[in-house]
Amino acid sequence: MIEVEHLTKNYGPRSAVKDLSFQINQGEVVGFLGPNGAGKTTTMNILTCILPATEGKARVCGFDTFDQSMEIRKVIGYLPETPPLYQDMGVADFLKFAAGLRNVPKKKIAAAVDRVLEQCGLGDVRHRIIGRLSKGYQQRVGLAQAMIHDPKILILDEPTVGLDPIQIIEIRKLIQELGTAHTILLSSHILPEVTQICQRVIIINEGEIVAMDTLDGLNASMRHARRLELKVRHPSDGIQNKLEGLDKVLSVQTRGRDFFVIESESDVHLQDEVARLALDQLWGIEELKPMTLTLEDIFLKLTTEEKEVKEAQV
Amino acid sequence: MKSVFWIARREIGSFFYSPIFYVVTTVFLVLYSFLFFAIFSDFSQASLQAAPQAEALQKAGYSINANEMVIVPSLGNMGVILLFIIPLITMRSFAEERKNKTFALLLSSPVHLREIVAGKFLACVTVVSFMILLSSYSIGFIVLMGQPELGPILSGYLGLLLMTGCYIAMGVFASSLTDNQIVAAVIGFGMALLMWLLELPAQNTDSGIGMILEYISLRSHLESFLKGVIDTSDIVYYLSFMAFILFITHQVLDSRRWR
To answer: Which of A11, A69, A195, B15 could form a disulfide with A49 if both were Cys (CB 3.0 to 4.6 A apart)?
Structure first.
């Protein structure tokens, strides 16, 4: 559903996102995890066609974000970090406006508004003015706005930030329910949040992907793994298999055709074996190095504690 | 095109929710009415004095005419008042969207940027037209009291609407430059005033530059409308002025995405 290839976005001399590549399949709920300022919002803004990328490509449902942005906007629902709500409008009126803007046919608007009001638990406040609602309800209106045209893909930027613990639990429950019918990409800087809602996690730091795995996979690699990065000049199809064939290699992940992450037990040093293999096979070593910023480091930067929410859950 | 309608409709709705609209409309009506009745009482005094010698005056080629003596100056005054008032209507167009982060909704919807610009512009035009409509009670007043010619009144209003359209375009453009509404209002006002005043230096020069300045000035094109002459070149001037400014607005908004 979402394919991102070598995405780079520069703001002047500073790059917010560097050479990002990942894929999201239909029906997945993927967490986009990273500390503040890691490039999550920038990536989401590119996917939703608000910002153009400096380099690289992003495709949503097979449409290019640059050339076919109108097609993408029809199938995507976006909840930015600050929900885009007109404070002076009533809830139902605002949703009607959002429906019109998103090309919902006139005859179906009333039904669509009723549907999202019901889904987001907003029935009681449908005639209230948005500016007078609590932050939690406003967030729901933001979510309702993103779902009004029944999009295939939902992109949610920090959907629980700034809410109180009970509201957080409610919003998460709502997202989990939505995940059964939609492809969802949601960002967060809170680790437990992602572990609760998502099936797969992309961890990003300073604009670069540091890990991309299922939760179980992440947990496993956290505990006992050492990683090597290998970049080659002459990519070919057999490389991954040959690397996996090496003794003591646990797994090999690819990022693009020429970039491999080799995982081994933590007490094994594989540099020599990998180098020898690469030389024999004439792959042309561009880069071979141990992964510098470990997952543990990144995780330490993330909010790992969620005391209040736990208390509220009890 | 439907999106233009949706955007304009929401925008107009939020004008009626906001106190700014009511304050601005009240101030506009009070100022206009004050000037109108000042002119009107001058006129009635003049016609009272002229009444005994009406025939003699007519023979000499003079006439006392409500169109010329009341309506033309009143519409001219309205143009000046609107110059001050319109930036307060247009300032929020884009500045507020950016400040409240609601622009993301428009930008992530299947709507072209030009439709957003058109929607905002149309909303402001509708609101200002409504204000002008409210002020037209004064014309009704004259129609009740005398027999003004309707043709020049209608053409005067057409000219006024076209000129305010240009003010509005400049105001919307100013609003696209910043996310501070006051800054937007000041820039919009400055641009409108400059375009209004351009013909002043032109009056003192006979050179080509003077003629060019006079042609560019918004005010000089209003003159013939007020006299009852609808000249296509004036209409073309106003329309292309609006189109040009709105095009620049589009470019400014588009270029902001790349930074």
So the answer is: A69
